[in-house]
Amino acid sequence: MTPRLARRAGAAALAVALAASPALAWESQTTHAGLAEQAALASHLHARLRGLGFTRGLYEPLTMPPADAPELIAALRRLDPAGGFVPDNRGRQYALSWLAAGAALADAPFAANHFFDPTTGKGWQRPGVGLVDSVEESVVERLGRASIPDRGVPAPDWVVAKDNPLGLDGFLDQYAKAVRASTPGERSRHMAGALVAAGAILHVLADMGSPSHVRGDTAAHFDPVGRGRDDLGSRFERIAALAWGRLGVPAPSRVVTRPTLRAFFTGPGTGTGAEVGLADATAGRWFSPHTLPRPMRITAAVGRTQVTPQLVRPKPAPPARLNLMAASQEQGATLDDADGTCLSRYRVAHGLLTWWLDDDCLLEQAAAILPEVASFEAGLLEFLFRGELNVQVNGGDVAVSAATPLGAGDVEILAEDSRGVRTPVATVKSQAATTGAALARAAAPAGAVRLIALFRGADAAGEPVIAVGAADRK
Q: Do residues 453 and 389 make contact, with C-beta atoms less than 8 angstroms apart?
């Protein structure tokens, strides 16, 4: 069996499974959780957590007492307990599970804020009833039309929005507290909170890898994905969940680097496309169900010349010369990209050229897209935990310097005793500093076994950052 026939056989099996349940996005408890876990394993988060004092890294048990975060714990307990990201009755689970938990719960109730069209700068816009064939008035009413927002906050703006409880501000606040809090229990609680926020941010970025999220195609999320009249959602995203589940999500092909948080989502690139954001890369390479080329009448004259497809968006651009003879057969023809991945099917019947995406085509696309999404997620996770400081203890003094270029901010020095209790020693305002530049100095208290430095401010690019360093007292 050829690879393409094998993929088609797999897609046929998926089509049967699709009838069982709906798909409304990258599935949170499978695809999103799996992507976050793959990103964590590819990043340096394990080493960073160990350096922060969580000696088991990604496998450190962290406890968030239910009484401290009742709404969060209640939301997590509504997830499938077999998924491994629902804490026990004490509110305890591994660090990696807290990250996956943030990715799993980020949709509710904010899914409309996970869309971004880089060509317009707009986010979610409710599809107009009557304008989209797949959305009927009665169906939208049954789903609760009033609950479907007219507009959403564009995804790159949502991750930094002040009213986003799981956005950048929440991450930075919890991360700083996970370093400066007095007791190990408090630091454990706050690190769990920081990882939940980081997972939610990764979730929003991952949605930029789904073509319908970045091509203004909100109508695709009302397509039939099952036999029930209300089984609606993105067929592409549901196929990804069925094909890879959670543990089978592909690993990153690389770790993407970008200078700013927003650049992971969108950016103009450098001409080679190396620096574009995930939304730009996805929008320019893939069709979505309702942004395929429009149907076109093929006349005898046109058939003897080059065909210019009637595009809804400039990219991807099909070649001018299509295989109209193959397209006249019942199964139609396939438009592949340069890597041999199916972009679309097309067919000529009764003189009309039409385009569509079938399940095996979508399966090929998902196989190409998921490793790229995981690569961006791994890079964003590195970005969130990127800040580092050098700490040196010489006799009775502790000196702090910049391990990477930093902007202005505050440097706090903390002393940790043999019980693991941390107390503030000094806080110093610092100006922009190059790598190796001195930031702060203080006397190390008697009884301190470890000295920790915490910087909160901006990096050299003006992006908010938490930077941390520590050294044992010998």
A: yes
Does residue 105 belong to any structural domain of this protein?
yes
Based on the domain organization, do 205 and 335 belong to the same domain?
Answer: no
pLDDT at residue number 14: 40
Nearest one of 192, 177, 164 to 66, comparing CA atoms: 192
| Same domain as 397, residue 325 | no
Q: Considering its fold, how many domains does the chain have in total?
A: 3
Verify that 181 and 311 share a domain, yes or no: no
**pLDDT of amino acid 319:** 86
Span 344-377, pLDDT tens digits: 999 999 989 999 999 999 999 999 999 999 999 9
Query: Amino acid identity, residue 126?
Result: R
pTM: 0.91
Give the residue carrying structure tokens 């009833």. Answer: 129
| Of 77, 71, 280, nearest in space to 166 by CA | 71
Q: Does 122 fall in a domain?
A: yes
Which residues, including other chains, have CB under 8 Å from residue 147's CB and lie 6 or more apart? none
- Cβ(225)–Cβ(23) under 8 Å? yes
User: For the segment 239-295, what is each residue's pLDDT rounded down to a tens digit?
Assistant: 999 999 999 999 999 999 999 999 999 987 644 445 899 999 999 999 999 999 999
Q: What percent of the chain has pLDDT over 90?
A: 74
One-letter identity of residue 30? T
Give the Cα separation of 279 and 121 in Å (integer): 11
User: Do 87 and 187 fall into the same domain?
Assistant: yes
- Side-chain half-sphere exposure of 263, counting CA atoms within 13 A: 16
Query: What share of the chain in percent tops pLDDT 70?
Result: 88
Q: Which residue has the tokens 């680097």?
A: 257
Question: Mean per-residue pLDDT for 2-9?
Answer: 45
Instruction: Provide mean pLDDT across the span 426-440.
Output: 96
Q: Based on the domain organization, do 153 and 22 belong to the same domain?
A: yes
Could you tell me if residue 117 is inside a domain? yes
Nearest to 370 by CA among 254, 229, 209, 230: 209
The set of residues, in sequence order, having a beta carbon less than 8 Å from that of 55 and lying 6+ positions away, is none
On whether residue 123 sits in a domain, the answer given is yes
Mean pLDDT score across all residues of the chain: 88
User: Contact 388/465 with Cβ under 8 angstroms?
Assistant: no
